[in-house]
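Problem statement: downstream parser choked on a complex file, so we are re-checking the raw output for the FE2/S2 (inorganic) cluster run. The parser issue turned out to be on our end (a line-ending mismatch), but while we're here, posting the original submission so the record is complete.
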Amino acid sequence: MSSKHAIFSRRSVLQSGLAGGLVLAFPWPLRAAPVNEPEQPPDHPDGQFAPNAFIRIDNSGKTTLVMPQAEMGQGVYTAIAMILAEELDADFAQVMIEHGPPSDKLYGNPLFGVQVTGNSNSIRAFWDKLRNAGAAARTMLIAAAAAQWQVDAASCTAANGKVTHASSNRSLTYGEVADAAAKLPVPEKPKLKDPRDFTLIGKPLKRSDTPNKSDGKTIYGIDAMVPDMKFATLVQCPVLGGKVKHADDSAAKNLPGVRQVVVLDDLVAVVGDHMWAAWQGLNALKVTWDEGQNAKINSADIWNELRAASQKDGVVAKSEGDVNKGLAQGESFDAAYELPFLAHATMEPMNCTVRLSPDGCEIWTGSQVQSRAQQYAAKAAGLPIDKVKVYNHYIGGGFGRRLEADMVASAVRIAKEVSAPIKVVWTREEDMQHDVYRPAYRDTISASLSNGKIVGWKYKVTGSSVLARWFPVAFKNGLDGDAVDSAVDMPYDIPNKRVEYVRAETPAVTTGFWRGVGPNNNVFAIESFMDELARKANMDPVAFRLGMLDGTPRLKAALKLVAEKSGWGSPLPPRVGRGVSVQPSFGSFIATVVEAEVDDMGEVHLRRVTCAVDTGIAVNPDTIMAQLQGGLIFGLTAALWGEVTIEKGRVQQSNFNNYRMLRIDETPPIDVHVIKSGEHPGGIGETGATAGPPALRNAIYAATGVPLRRLPIDRSAIASKKA
Amino acid sequence: MRHMSPARRVAIIVVAAVAIVAIGVAAWLVFGPGPLAFAGNSTVALADYHEANPTGVPADLAKADAIRRGEYLAKAADCMVCHTTPGGEAYAGGLAFPLPFGTLYSTNITSDKETGIGNYTDQDFLNAVQRGIRKDGARLYPAMTYTSYTFMTDADALAIKAYLFSLPAVHRPNQDDTLLFPFNQRWGMIFWSWAFNPNTRFAPNTAKCAEWNRGAYIAEALAHCGDCHTPRNLAFALDNRRKFSGAVAAGWRAYNITADKATGIGAWSDDEIFAYLAKGHAMGRGTASGPMGEAVDRSFSQMAPADIRALVTYLRSIPAVASSEPATIAAPAPTSPKEGGAVADALGRRVFAQACASCHSWTGVSALSPVATISGSRAVNDPTATNVAQIVISGTQRFSPGAMSMPAFGSTYTDSEIAAVANYVTGRFGSAASKLTAKDVADLRGQTAR
Amino acid sequence: MTFSISINGTKHDVDVADDTPLLWVLRDVLGMTGTKYGCGIAQCGACTVHVDGNPLRSCLLPVGTIGSRAVTTIEGIGATEAGAKVQKAWLDREVIQCGYCQSGQIMSAAALLAANPHPDDADIDAAMAGNICRCGTYVRIREAIKSAAGEA
Ligand code: FES
Ligand code: FES
């Protein structure tokens, strides 16, 4: 199986007509404000069997699966293809994969109603829809073959892209019956396979996208090439939100290879024959900025405001029992945990290639929100949305950054001033200093303990609301459901609890989703405090948790397994500790143990990470392991070093020299144990990112006795007294 | 009142004698020769000098107006670096100089009337630049290098003033210094100034050629090389007996730039010195970083080539003084990370592998660019590793287009990691491994101007 | 200025300023986009190519300094013995996630194995610590290098 170059496949796709009645309709639980739905045809060239938006079979039998979700390393193309092919009974080795075009209607994520790859819900949300799509197509192909043989469809079977009538020993390939199948009605409730009959799902399968990624053939957005294109790079005001006052481009324009300088109200771009020329031009620009309001804002002020806001009463997100009565019982304790702003730092910097012509706009990029990218481009170009074509690409790291389409809008605005097609690539510095940042959060907790159990729990999240900006319809009554995710549904059996949310927008800093989304603040605060409470209760942290997990048996089982696999309780050298964290997030149940050493100087050395996961039906177990390994490293990186700081309205970090990444020589062995399960598949991409930080923090707590309440880890607080 | 016992009398005499000798020694120690004394005293007043005028600007600028001339001279005198904060408005002051007894802040020297020097008359300006006296009569600390600028001609100083006054006025109130008693008593500087500021203009030396005199004027009156490169005595005055033999200033080591072959720049060719000053790098000699890097970027690289050549001529004439810096310069390290010095420092090696090896190579001879070759440089051969640590902390910025810079690692690598990598680097690429501790690194961070 | 560079055995003439980093010559002038831009300051390794077999960061390698030395990129590394071994191990061990860093990872690993067919953990650390993977594939990179070296 191979994936085609997006530029060419999409173009042919987009030129063909709308497919009318063959599209399966599913209910949308959550709709955004009515979007100007493009009259964008689904991927449906003539002469193909196309029962729905995902499956194309031509009469040579060539089977193409169209991917509604974006592939950014999470292996979703393979998993989606597995689900479709499983129910379709296609020959998996022969299917082709195509990037889906933008369309909320056809490819909207069933959980959001719009086309979004994020929140670890590709498989969770599309599971039923994809199975139905595959099963419907299979049913139609069987029916077409049965009709040709004039036998009962129930007496026919399908496998490996063929329909077989065993009793007469006849078979037809899918290609041979595709035309006939295309004339049949689409069944509304096709019969799904019994999971016991799955031949693909649940087996580790090699990913389809990796061969081309191992020899440089894969085309990411940043690699798009369009005839006669120019290359551009841009600079925005170093003070967040500032504007251009004046740009002196005389020196820049004289440099070899520099073609044009584009000055817009909020950015200056240099267009050149190649990125280097453009970049040199950028360095030679003398721009004076109107720095605006934010020029006086520092991290310290932001934190003071956040701390003040966290004193206020919040909107109640969840209330059970009587929290005040609960807190009055036994002994009560308080704590506050703080998490910093974080950058996404995807390995592939922001980019977008644009070709404008009198009749339209074409966009080449890698987006987690294809339809939103299209909308932004249309608005920036001043064109109706159906004049904008988006060729989505493989993504060199999303992590939530590509849930935004700002880079598309600015690229189109620049392109309007340039007569050639242009590729706009952000420098790493620009990428890091004009990100949308993971919100800074302050989570406060009061809890009371009685007989080794928590009897009262009052939890408050204070932070900016990404949802209110990004998806306003979902921000209801002052409550950001994402910010309190994993807090409202915390796994422990606590009779009296309340969760509140205080929206506190931080000045200057625009916030966005970040791998792990809402749960990454809540899992950290809850699981850190659980260890502090266990110590107050004089109990082992694992035993303490196990005593309160009866209501969440899948998590309890994961915790038991991880304790066993990690050697929990076995003796360790001085200043080495094990820390545990559990989380029932994104429909997956995960328990993690980190073993770490804190040296006398306060440097932290990771020794070993063990993780047990029940994610329901594990579509591709190998991908699940890989996602957890990677997610854990992502989260541990942030816990060890991640913090974006603001000084005079400017982001202080600029590149990997001052925004540090975990590297191979600091990475410990990471063992992931996948628990066999027949439950509905859960999400996995985000989960490791949230699991690592509290487990590491608790390992440090165990090693040093110091209860850190802030990330990243403060080395000076955990250096030994001797040092 | 009782009579003094004989023993007591003897004691007093002895004490007095010791005191006199001590004062003499102290005086010898603190009152050294002037910066140009080494060249002998065949000097004449500028007006009586008949060769090409060693002061002022290069010939092609001689006819320019005062503002243009002042711009060249202000760059040569490197006013901006001290009077500008990183990212701040030019000449608006505010750069902090942390000293053991508090912090000094440079002042706003833009023409803003309220917060800058907009109200300064010509005489006020000369008083400040040549004599260290502020308009309000207060004394300047010698962080302002008026003991060098005092050699500037009035015409040159006033051209600088004209240039500064031609720039936009920036309203930026000066910060108060935070010096402890007794250092906060500015009047005390009257005595210091009286003792150590010669308050005299440059006098050409007729025994030397015109080019030498031009170089001397640039080095002593404008570029104030000695303020970093000459060691200081107990009274914090320059010890010109060891002129240019190297010192630590603002947390960075300014190397020995005397003619000493082993520890100075006696073995450098003229072209190497020229390249180092003009471009911040000489093949195999390392790259200017820290304050010297700024001096190259803001000052030397902006000078006319003839002026840099004059500087080279002058530097060549500085008497050789051997310093304690190691004379041996180590050869490149082996290609394999497992061979060579300092292989045992696991943390240092790790940091080097992560952040350094890609550019500097395991041999220390960069495969990417000679600019990034560290093998053979003074910095890695300095067993105090002062500059290695500082460069890791703050990087090396080059502003000329196309030039390579080194990023700063000080904000994410911890003090113990920086100490470890500095020890690893000096061990692997230098003649002796340093023994920096995390605390030393913290101290070095504290000493730099910012 | 015109330069003639040999890339993966083929001669290419390019007309660029001599200080142009090889990375942009490859990507933007020659359209060989397998070599990636990640940081531009030799901190991430995404741009790694081989020059006469040595792994170098092309983002800081001025094209004017290459001369007649042979450049090998990710597009051509499969033709070398070590490169082919590494690519196979990468697929066998399912190392790759988003893949953006992997051109550089594979180039660094191939250079390591070509120079040192049986690297131990310390060798792997020294050779690979300069390559960042934001997706966190390090555990599998280590396994894959060992498997390519025939140790696992
Ligand atoms: S792009 Fe060259 S090392 Fe990062
Ligand atoms: S695989 Fe995505 S950055 Fe390495």
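For whoever reads this later: The longest helix of chain C spans residues 102-115.
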